[in-house]
Amino acid sequence: MLADTGSTNDDARAWAAEGAPHGACVIADTQSKGRGRHGRSWSSPSGDSLAISIVVRPSVSPAHLPLLSLVAGLAARAAVARRVPTAGVKWPNDIVLVEADGSLRKIAGILIEASLAGSRVEHAIVGIGINVARREFPDELAPIATSLARAGASDLDRASLAIELLSLLDEELAAFERAPRAIAARLREHDALCGRAVLLDGDSRGVADGIDESGRLRVRTADGVVLANAGEVRLDRGGAGT
Ligand code: BTN
Q1: What's the CA-to-centroid distance between 36 and ligand 1, angstroms?
Q2: Mutate to test the pocket of ligand 1, among 5, 27, 128, 234 (most ligand atoms within 8 A of CB)
Q3: Pairing of strands 2-5, 25-31
Q4: What is the DSSP secondary-structure string of 59-124?
Q5: C-alpha of residue 127 to centroid of ligand 1, in Å
Q6: pTM, entire model
Q7: Which ligand 1 atom minimizes the distance to the CA of 28?
């Protein structure tokens, strides 16, 4: 484990460009420039979180790459669920805990950065951040974030969490390579967004109704079912089931 780095995703990407093999991973105690999706920052205070980036070289078509965050999500969910059973995947890239009142709190996030070579996937970096021992969050995150410690998990050992995560990711990637489109079915029982009110771009409302075989979210609206890509949907926290 590195003591300190900018972003483990950047380190893994540089290593991949130098030929790092499938499965090579970078883990850091803390990151000064941890990144989330949509250019957001990701905070990993020392001792509090698992920040890990894995180089993967899956034998799948680039068309299936949008499914990779769900593949990683299933692995991260399973690792978290061994410690807190109410863990689910919140499409497209979050691991959440379902609270007693039904609300969702984010415990982990996934950032995939892929590199293509012509019509093949050269490599992808699977970056995963899990809130482990963290108890304090900034005001804007406090109502919607949590950690293993806050959820009462007794095992907060980051090394064993990382080892289990790598092994689970290996299994999920093997299943993904065998049948990429089957990921939607595998996700069904762990889909924390299903049945919840969501807002679509343009501010129309709907209810999440599972994931299609290409990794898009099915949303039931007054006008019928809409298929939404990542970035086009957000949870309607004012709506039913949030
Ligand atoms: C998100 O929820 O937006 C994704 C967060 C991903 C954070 C992880 S921590 C390890 C890796 N390194 C980074 O800079 N980001 C990812």
Answers
A1: 5
A2: 128
A3: parallel
A4: -S-GGGGGGHHHHHHHHHHHHHHTT-TTEEEETTTEEEEE-TTS-EEEEEEEEEEEEEETTEEEEE
A5: 5
A6: 0.95
A7: 10
The residue assigned the tokens 């000064």 is 32
Nearest to 92 by CA among 232, 233, 230: 230
Token duo for residue 137: 């969050």
From first to last of its 242 residues, the chain has per-residue pLDDT tens of 999 999 999 999 999 999 999 999 999 999 999 999 989 999 999 999 999 999 999 999 999 999 999 999 999 999 999 999 999 999 999 999 999 999 999 999 999 999 999 889 999 999 999 999 999 999 999 999 999 999 999 999 999 999 999 999 999 999 999 999 999 999 999 999 999 999 998 778 999 999 999 999 999 999 999 999 988 888 887 654 33
**Protein residues with CB under 6 Å of any ligand 1 atom:** 7-9, 31, 34-37, 40, 42, 44, 51-53, 93-94, 109-111, 127-129
Q: Whose CA is nearest to atom 7 of ligand 1?
A: 129
